[in-house]
């Protein structure tokens, strides 16, 4: 079995300079003032340089191209145009465990001007009926990926916990209502090869080269329970 797996990994080994486009779709719940907890969905789009390390592990140097946060309970949160593409790259290392490839890593940014707009942290724009403005935040995420090689790339399930701290708030309402948050999300991800020279700017989020298979959090949990029996 191990020799077969080694052969498959060697066959799928990416060539130097290989690029993958990635898509991650996660669901969670967020506390909204006066409304309580509302369901959320976040779609993240990546571009990753792919290689193998000296131990033969699959390594992705991943950059975020674009993040789309769905409107929830009338509240829309977004990043500045081009801001997420300036965030630090994240190194993701997959290891073989029980027939799957798994990775666990941290990502995020601090109080430094991570999106290059001259304000601390990363600027998020809040559009809500009664409370709009800008939040300047820092964030740290702990992410777990579990997947299998598929279609020349990799696809599977994702879980993440993010801690977000508000550094400053613009607007009287947000200054009062903004608070630090912890979000736990889960969903799916997928990466697929794209031509050399591809950039975030050359890809259209509406026509992204790969799409994560849509599965609700409860479906993922049921799958994990069945595997554990």
Largest sheet: 8 strands, antiparallel, barrel
Number of DSSP helices?
A: 3
H/E element order: HEEEEEEEEEHEH
Derived from helix and strand composition plus strand pairing, the structural class reads mainly beta
Q: What is Rg?
A: 19 Å
Uncertain regions spanning at least 5 consecutive residues: 1-12, 219-229
Strand order of the largest sheet: 1-2-3-5-6-8-9-10
Q: How many β strands by DSSP?
A: 10
- Mean pLDDT comes to 84
Strand-residue fraction? over 45%
N-C termini distance: 22 Å
The proportion of residues forming helix, as a percent range, comes to: 10-25%
Shape: globular
- Name the quaternary structure: single chain
Describe this structure in words.
- The chain is mainly beta.
- It has a domain at 17-74 and 83-115 and 141-162 and 183-228.
- The chain has helices at 2-11, 172-177, 217-228, and strands at 18-32, 36-52, 58-69, 76-79, 90-97, 100-109, 122-127, 133-150, 153-170, 181-194.
- An eight-stranded antiparallel barrel has the order 1-2-3-5-6-8-9-10.
- The chain is globular, with a radius of gyration of 19 Å.
- It starts with a helix and ends with a helix.
